[in-house]
Amino acid sequence: MYRLTGLLTIVVLLASCSSEEPQEHVQEAQELTVYTHRHYEADQELFAQFEKEHNVKLNVVNASADELMNKMKSEGELCPADVLITVDAGRLQRATDQGLLQPTSNPAIEAIVPSHLRDAQGHWFALTKRARAIAYNASNTTLPEGLAIEDLAAPAWKGKILVRSSENIYNQSLLASLIIHHGRDSALSWAQGVVANMAREPKGNDRDQMKALYAGEGELAIVNSYYLGKLVQSEDSLEAEVGKAITLYFPNQDGHGAHVNISGIGVAKHAPNAELAQTFIAHLLSVPSQEVFSSANFEYPVNSNATVDPLLASWGSFKEDDVSIAALGAHNKEAVLVFDEAQWK
Ligand SMILES: [Fe+2]
């Protein structure tokens, strides 16, 4: 990215030396500051393209979502961030509730992002989608047809389920979706049922659940879809082996659809360049950018005109739960309490 920026600077300088036009015609590069919790190569590639196409210098600040939000809070009006990029509805809602984002109204962006995948006031917009699906090893396990995530609380799954800790926001949003669909009491019984069915105490990340599955520690794992892509394409031979052995199952196809979460972006409350920030958001939502997210990071495009990467397409198309992402965020605190009550570690 820096090399590209450097090249760009040289090109601009050469243009200013060789051109006979007055120098004031050479535009100074504008700057845009991006606070991002994502740390993927796909993002770096898209950022570099934006710099080149729009003659903008991006200042990218990478840290955890909590660190970035605390930084925005403590910097207040002096915060240089133009946009905040993070993953999961819960975090985007938290940033909105804390007053860190500003409402944005932009018809071009709104035409791309379906209404359930953005904040009604435009505080944030989804950039990519990821399904929270069920992973299994098809060589030794068959899953029944019509399986719903709700079914995993049934005694038939005792000792068979691998899933990470309830501190994880992906699980919190999944539980929030069950609170929305069935109410708090039903969501609590579900969480208690899953706890009773766990193959082991929750530990590790989604990739670790699939590794444990491959090692025969359980029969199914609850994971985000893109982690399977990361395993399949991993340079680590064991991870690649695990990836090849695992199949994804999208639950709830006969009902409300598989739970889907997002990564998203919002314009910072005190953005020095709010207008340019919108151009940046539109760039990330363009068809070519969306296809990079899909092919390089195995996420599903938000822009319906973008083609899904062949690896993702090989997992099959599926019905998505279209519960509003904002509602997931709004039920995050309740989900955390329900998990505590269910003693899901
Ligand atoms: Fe993740």
For the terminal residues, how far apart are their CA atoms? Answer: 40 Å
Number of domains: 2
Bound molecules: fe (ii) ion
The radius of gyration is 22 Å
Helicity range of the residues?
40-55%
Large-scale geometry = globular
CATH architecture of the largest domain: 3-Layer(aba) Sandwich
Largest sheet features: 9 strands, mixed
Give the integer mean of the pLDDT values. Answer: 92
Portion in strands: 15-25%
Helices and strands: which structural class?
A: alpha/beta
Low-confidence stretches: 1-24
Q: CATH homologous superfamily of the largest domain, by name?
A: Periplasmic binding protein-like II
**CATH class categorisation of the largest domain:** Alpha Beta
Order of helices and strands: HEHEHEHHEEHHHEHHEEHHEHHH
CATH topology of the largest domain: D-Maltodextrin-Binding Protein, domain 2
Number of strands: 9
Tell me the quaternary state. single chain
Task: Provide a count of the helices.
Answer: 15
Description:
The chain has 15 helices and 9 strands. The chain is an alpha/beta fold and 345 residues long. It has 2 domains: 165 residues, Periplasmic binding protein-like II (D-Maltodextrin-Binding Protein, domain 2, 3-Layer(aba) Sandwich), CATH 3.40.190; 155 residues, D-Maltodextrin-Binding Protein, domain 2 (3-Layer(aba) Sandwich). Strands 1, 2, 3, 4, 5, 6, 7, 8 and 9 form a 9-stranded mixed β-sheet that branches. The radius of gyration is 22 Å and the shape is globular. It starts with a helix and ends with a helix.
